[in-house]
Amino acid sequence: MTSFQVIFKQRRAKVLKKTNFGCLKGVYTINVTNGCSLSCTYCYARGYSQAPPKGEVELYTNLPSLLQQELANPRRRENPDLVVFNTASDCFQPHPAILDVTYHSMKVLLEEGVTISFLTKGEIPPRFLQLFGRWPERVLAQIGLVSLSQRYWQQFEPGAAPPGVRLKNIRSLFDIGITPEVRMDPIIPFLTDGEGEVERFIRTIKELGVKRLSLSYLHLRPGIARQLEEELPPPYRDIIHSCFQNQAWAQVGTSTKTKLIPRPLRERGYRRIKDIAQAYGIEAVICSCKNPDLKGGICVPERIIKRHSFKEPKKRDRQLTLFPC
Ligand code: SF4
């Protein structure tokens, strides 16, 4: 586990705001913290201008009471029917104060009849499962998991829960009547996309009951490239260099400097993963936001798509600032 310090803050601005880009355009989103203690090496939210330095996380302690006030405000035109948690951080960062604020924020929303959605690489504590078990039909869960490899976890996601714990999250969610989806992002060529490893991964999540998987390969931004350079040992850095060395920085959606893995490599990899998933009866969807040059789909939970009648985002709306996980 990585060590970090929590800075307690009071939030002044309105909490319930709609996002205006990407797959989540028009959807209310909330981040309980600014910064994320999980410190994944590939996380682009760590490079945001407002992000605190590595090892620090700012926690908005008054979030539950602000939410309560906003939902009760008679002048509010509309209350959300869906709130997506933590688009630039993780809900289940292992710190008691963060978990407390997250728990009470989710409780306020669920008690008011709002559906919540989250994506996590952390461990979901039992009290959350008890809370979710009261309204399983209004909890949309995605588990971020790319590989079952311990080495991948230790090198790329050292602050996240080990793969076994994330599998346990999936099992626990099914036990209380929630059908979680899995997000395989970022897939690293030659490291996590080999046939044998993918087969083992998909067989394991199939045995747990998973039906839908979203896929995305690693992309680079200058900040991510720096982090990978500083935090990965040489063999991993070399693999990543070799994938991106002939790729130019390009505009992808609203992000002006992005490098994608070469298209033929991604196409082959997605095909391989999709074929294996199909053989196990799992639907695998390529994330459109992170693959604007390929025919993809929408990587948010299927029920969000149905609820909001989403269409694939327009090219100009596709961007890489949502769901860093
Ligand atoms: S990728 Fe997600 S879990 Fe990892 S540090 Fe970024 S926000 Fe946190």
Largest sheet data: 8 strands, mixed
Poorly predicted runs: 315-322
CATH class: Alpha Beta
Strand tally, please?
Answer: 14
Second rung of CATH, namely the architecture: Alpha-Beta Horseshoe
* Each distinct ligand: iron/sulfur cluster
Rough shape? Answer: globular
- The Cα radius of gyration reads 19 Å
Side-by-side strand order of the widest sheet: 2-3-6-7-8-9-10-14
Q: How much helix is in the residues?
A: 25-40%
Number of spatially distinct domains: 1
The topology string of helices and strands comes to EEEEEHEHEHEHHEHEEHHEEHEH
Overall residue-averaged pLDDT value: 90
Strand content: 15-25%
| Total count of helical runs of at least 4 residues | 10
CATH topology: pyruvate-formate lyase- activating enzyme
What report would you give on this structure?
With 325 residues, this protein is of the alpha/beta class. The protein has one domain: pyruvate-formate lyase- activating enzyme. It is 34% helix and 19% strand. It is built from 10 helices and 14 strands. The strands form 3 sheets. Strands 2-3-6-7-8-9-10-14 form an 8-stranded mixed sheet, sandwiched between helices. The protein is globular. The two termini are 18 Å apart. Iron/sulfur cluster binds next to loops.
Structural descriptors:
single chain; three-stranded mixed beta sheet; alpha/beta; eight-stranded mixed beta sheet; 325 residues
How is the topology of this model organized?
Layout: E1 5-9, E2 17-18, E3 28-30, E4 33-34, E5 56-60, H1 63-72, E6 82-85, H2 96-111, E7 115-120, H3 126-132, E8 139-144, H4 150-156, H5 163-175, E9 181-187, H6 195-208, E10 212-217, E11 219-220, H7 222-231, H8 234-244, E12 250-252, E13 255-260, H9 263-279, E14 283-286, H10 302-308
Parallel strand pairs: 1-5, 3-6, 6-7, 7-8, 8-9, 9-10, 10-14
Antiparallel strand pairs: 2-3, 4-5, 11-13, 12-13
This protein binds iron/sulfur cluster.
Iron/sulfur cluster (SF4) is lined by residues 36, 38-40, 43, 45, 88-90, 121, 324-325.
